[in-house]
Amino acid sequence: MSTTKKLAVTAVAAAVGVSTLAACGESKDSTTEGGAKSKTVTLVSHDSFAASPAVLKEFTKETGYTVKVLKSGDAGAALNQEILTKGSPRGDVFFGVDNTLLSRALDNGIFTPYEAKGLDRVAAEAQLDQDQHRVTPVDTGDICVNYDKKFFADKKLSPPQSFDDLIKPEYKNLLVTENAATSSPGLGFLLATTAEYGDEGWQDYWKKLKANGVEVVDGWEQAYNERFSGSAGGKKAKGDRPLVVSYASSPPVEVLYSEPQPKEAPTGVSTGTCFRQTEFAGLLKGAKNEAGGKALLDFLVSKSFQEDMPLNMFVNPVVKDAELPELFRKHGVVIGKPEAVAPEKIAENREQWVKSWSSLVLK
After folding, report:
1. Structure confidence at residue 240 (pLDDT)
2. pTM, to two decimals
């Protein structure tokens, strides 16, 4: 999950600037500019990257490299920093560029092509750069409207399940979403509406959504953990919006970090409002530890890392042989037909869509 995200993990993980998350070991043949062998491979990512120390120690044991994680804000901000330092990157591998921002990364040429070992196990629909292998798919997640089950039960009101539902009078002043210009989930939700209503209809839809009282905030953290009444953070902050743009994997988060754990998640997912997000990693052009970076990309699609992701980053694996943990299977929601927009169409229209959206919604 990108910013991101992807994915929900920022609700439960402390923001760390730079963290070393694996044990040391003997290095493979990799040299720094000065000629000394490097035992460290640096992963630059958005703030939502998380992995079990045991899994990263496994990588160290297998390869000899220690992973250092450099967290750099949300997905858009992190990517912009890598574009600005193109050719002299801050690390070896970048993780967290998703399909909404992929064209920006590829057009700026920040990655060195590399075909990761194990790509034959990755779902074909996730391999959006399969001809050139500038990026490696790592996870998927679905951006969807979440709802506060208690609110709707108390009101004896059925929660909305589609985009059309969200503009009905009974849902007036209930939805909070993120700014499409500053937030990955916000942009994903905007893209979902362009897919649902087409080039001629999405702007009219947003006019109706605005008239129906949609609230826009800067990012996911504020929307989900402050304004949304269904999350643990939102309850503490006295949030009064029972609908929020978040992820299909958000309900397992609420269960996992509740004491005691409830039998059912307190939040639900409006399954007809979803957009499929795919996150990628790539070997940064000019990486000081190219060999270590390639080894890390191989590891990101390994079965052990892929099975570690769901309860750390609350995203779905991309490899076919990875199994989901029971809590994720029980409380997560499988989205059968999420909205999708072709990467080339996103590349061609993203800036204008965001500009038009900002004029319509923020003024």
Report:
1. 97
2. 0.82
CA distance 296 to 303: 13
- Are 4 and 74 spatial neighbours (Cβ–Cβ below 8 Å)? yes
Q: Give the number of C-alpha atoms closer than 13 A to the C-alpha of residue 354, restricted to the C-beta side.
A: 17
For 65-78, the pLDDT digits (tens) are 999 999 987 788 88
Say if CB 247 and CB 335 are below 8 A apart. Answer: no
The pLDDT, as a whole number, for residue 38 is 73
Please report the pLDDT score of residue 135 as a whole number: 97
pLDDT-derived band at 259 (thresholds 50, 70, 90) equals confident
